[in-house]
Amino acid sequence: MPRSTIANRRAIQFDKATELRDYAAAAISASTTETALFYAVTKLMDYKAVVDVAAHTGFVATTAQWDITVEAGATSGGTYKTVGTFTSTGVANRFDVPLSGEWVDDIVADAAYIRVKAVKTGSPGNLTYGAFLIPCC
């Protein structure tokens, strides 16, 4: 067995079945909501959304930025509410959005679908990002 390194200890297991957005998909230039993933939540679950964001140009705090939100809903075509959010600063980065079943269920009773949405404010450069869910803790 190879020796453990900082890089491989921080690796995260990716499961295509829990992908919210494919990082290899084309960059977006306007606000976009991705297709929801069926991911029935129970109050005892602990999980997180992992969002990888590529570098982009044009970031100016509050006037030219991309805000990425994780949303939950009870039905695929119903109303969604934000359960986690962050702002990309134009630097390539990985964001972990911690979620618990109790937190999500308190916001959306009987939540069964999770999706990501990128909202453009002003005129930052095009956004390339990917997101997926993983069990936590």
Give a verbal description of the structure.
- With 137 residues, the chain is mainly beta.
- 8% of the residues lie in helices and 42% in strands.
- It contains 2 helices and 9 strands; from the N terminus they run αβββββββαββ.
- It has helices at 6-9, 101-107, and strands at 19-21, 32-33, 37-38, 46-53, 65-73, 80-88, 93-100, 113-121, 129-135.
- Strands 2, 3, 5, 6 and 8 form a 5-stranded antiparallel β-sheet that branches.
- The longest helix is centred in the C-terminal third of the chain and has 7 residues, at 101-107.
- It starts with 5 loop residues before the first helix and ends with a strand.
- The model has no long low-confidence stretch (mean pLDDT 90).
Secondary structure layout:
Blueprint (H helix, E strand, L loop, with lengths): L5 H4 L9 E3 L10 E2 L3 E2 L7 E8 L11 E9 L6 E9 L4 E8 H7 L5 E9 L7 E7 L2
Antiparallel strand pairs: 1-9, 2-8, 3-8, 4-7, 4-9, 5-6, 5-8
Contiguous low-pLDDT stretches (5 residues minimum) are none
Average pLDDT figure? 90
- Number of DSSP helical runs: 2
Into which percent range does the helicity of residues fall?
Answer: under 10%
Q: From the alpha-carbon coordinates, what is the Rg to the nearest angstrom?
A: 16 Å
Major sheet characteristics: 5 strands, antiparallel
Structural class: mainly beta
Distance between the termini: 25 Å
Q: How are helices and strands ordered from N to C?
A: HEEEEEEEHEE
Shape: globular
* Number of β-strand runs: 9
